[in-house]
Amino acid sequence: MADYDEVREIGLSLPGVEESTSYGTPSLKLAGRRGKMIARLREDGVTLVVRCLRPERETLLESEPEAFTLTDHYRDHDYVLIRLPAVDRDLLDERLTESWRLVAPVTQ
Q1: Are strands 47-51 and 36-41 parallel, antiparallel or unpaired?
Q2: Which CATH architecture has domain 4-103?
Q3: Is 82 exposed, middle or buried (0-12, 13-18, 19+ CB in 10 A)?
Q4: SS3 content of the chain, % helix, strand, coil (to 5)
Q5: What does residue 43 show for φ and ψ, rounded to 5 degrees?
Q6: What is the three-class DSSP state of 106?
Q7: What does the pLDDT look like over 60-106, one tens digit per residue?
Q8: DSSP state of 73
Q9: CA distances from 1 to 43, 50, 89, 107 (A)
Q10: How is the chain split into domains, by residue range?
Q11: On the chain, which terminus has fewer CB atoms closer than 10 Å, C or N?
Q12: Is the model's pTM score more than 0.90?
């Protein structure tokens, strides 16, 4: 069972990530990339929004429906919702790292 303290700890360990807010809730964004969002806590305090390419998102939704969900608002965008109480730290780390990779600049 994960919580936002773990989200913050994992996220801030990734290069260039800083704490911010998004729609009045805590978020993690990539500094220097016009504040590209890595993750955002939803208003319910237990659901996290992270970037995720749609083909992978469909796999997550089918394979782990207790942990991953989607609302109509995010259906046409590259995001997935994570129910924090339903994920362990390893899975959370994996999803946050992938979200970071989707917005991190490519280095040579």
Answers
A1: antiparallel
A2: Alpha-Beta Complex (3.90)
A3: buried
A4: 35, 30, 35
A5: -60, -25
A6: coil
A7: 999 999 999 999 999 999 999 999 999 999 999 999 999 999 998 77
A8: G
A9: 19, 17, 8, 34
A10: 4-103
A11: C
A12: yes
